[in-house]
Amino acid sequence: MDRWSEADANAWWAARRWVCGFNFLPSSAVNFLEMWHGDSFDRPTIERELGWAAEIGYNAVRFNPHFLVWQHDRDGLIERLDWITGVAARLGIGVVPCLFDDCGFGGEEPVYGPQPDPLPGVHNSRAVASPGRRAVMDRGRWPGFERYVRDVTRAFRDDRRILFWDVYNEPGNRMQFGPEGFSQFEGDLEPHALALMEAAFGWMREEVPEQPITVGAWNTPVPDDVDHVNPYQTEIDRSALRHSDIVTFHAYWRADRVARFIDYLSVLDRPMLCTEWMARTVDSRIEDQLHMFHERGVGCFQWGLVRGRSQTHLPWPSQLVEAHGGRVAPSVWFHDVLYEDGRPYEPHEINAIGALMQPTPDPEIGGIRK
Hints:
CATH class: Alpha Beta
Order of helices and strands: HEHHEHHEHHEEEHEHEHEHEHHEE
CATH topology: TIM Barrel
Helix content: 25-40%
Structural class: alpha/beta
Number of strands: 12
Strand content: 5-15%
Radius of gyration: 19 Å
Distance between the termini: 32 Å
Number of domains: 1
């Protein structure tokens, strides 16, 4: 199976309404291992929180199954993925699974089993990568990664509840957040992540999924005083854009800079979605950017839904916030839009989403599309 043509990708996009989604960890999960593990997969909380999302007007959800859960409990992971996809579809929400992830912000390698409680006051303190950064660097483990990609893809390749596939979240990301602040993973991760990403594109295409596949471009270090520099300079980002059926990117930046990213990517003439955005203290805000995404026909997935054990309502470390042109404001939520009881953190944000999203029949996912 080859990369989709521009015409096929744009026809896929034209058949659906504008996508307004969110990245999801239930409030009861400290990381994606805890979310998917059989002993802590919290069906009541997941169903309740997805219901709140549908009431707000969201019509898509992105989340990361974890390789270690598949490795230790393959049938359980497939059943849980099918169940959550079914819950989302009944609510009119399309699903975007993301199979690999290098965002091990907590700094520890993933370990299957019960997960530790969050570190007080630390953003995403127990976030772990999938399959793990050191595992990515061990080529001897790659046959297992191939079986995982092929198996999960094969199980859902003709499932209309799946909106699209995200192959790998932020490949090569070495950032770590801890009690001492911001640091970098020590290891030659990037070349291995690039190779694994490109291999995974091939494995997935050979399973012939009906849905498009993508990896988001995520490195966007554009200086404020440079107006005409292509932001996508890393080989990982360039390769991701070359291989993806649809264009996806991440943008925790203020609106004028995000508009420039969209301008650069628009020359690719493919559907475009921002699969991670919204971080208030770096001026990535719903009131500033949601209408821009809508007017320019760019789908979007904000980070977070309900404040919980991941503690993503807390800010990044100060040096990273300041590097993004923001300000450290612990009293202002960084991510997430709802309290644990479903109350909105900022009612005007919820109103802005609802104003753009009206329920209409959606034959693609078999429910009511918001």
